Amino acid sequence: MGRFDGRVVIVTGAARGIGFGTANRFAEEGASVAIIDLDEAAAAEAAGKLSLVDGAKSVGVGCDVSNPESVDAAVERVVSELGGLHVLVNNAGITRDNLLFKMTEQDWDMVMGVHLKGAFLMTKAAQKHFVEQRYGKVVNISSTSALGNRGQANYSAAKMGVQGFTRTLGIELGPFGINANAVAPGFIATEMTDATAARLKLDVEEFRKMNADANPVKRVGFPEDIAAAVTFLASDESSYITGQTLYVDGGISLGV
Ligand code: NAP
What we know:
The protein is of the alpha/beta class.
């Protein structure tokens, strides 16, 4: 018996990285899973690779989470193809890093659009179903960058915004049987952090080692580390926890 037998889960930005790792953990534990990503072909390919249990289904849906029409169509398609909706993981993300004096308005708007407006639009579309059935779980992906990070004024503001959004969801949706929490990853080895290494003109392995050395547990994180926390917060074991942000970061946010 899996923790998510009979549940339908959406993970955004799940064609790869943390999103895919998380989607796969839900699949292994019995859920039917919708992978939402910008590119429908990549989403469908990833959906086909999930380790589903017998009887569970998956779908890959092309959707831009910052676009309201695209979001509404995607959520309705998932509900009709997978037969409902119980868990939403707002994971889709981008970076457009630059020091403040070089950051463009477009860099700001794009990052806010995907992380913050995207989480808002997806949650608004999902909560209709959650409220009706008096059951739902929202897990938002924040970041240790919420605490401040050089070159990431846009991303840091969006990720701290996600935490405020999560607290408010906890207050508003709790009476309807809905829990909302956030996970704030530290350095996780994915294409996003590999791209940061390239931008800093550093070798990927050297960049990972630098980040491993910087935290108390002396290793980088992997998508599986985030998947474990997200599935806990989306499970019925955590039904008395809401509005919280759990840092999953090898202790880097302890500031030692
Ligand atoms: P990733 O490998 O870059 O994956 C992000 C996915 O989101 C990509 O498949 C991307 O699609 C998709 N996406 C981007 N914009 C989208 C949009 N408008 N609509 C739908 N999908 C969209 O990133 P990751 O490292 O797995 O990160 C996942 C989440 O964790 C993000 O929210 C990130 O900010 C957060 N996070 C990551 C780290 C880390 O160290 N990796 C640390 C803290 C927080 P395309 O490829 O087509 O752009």
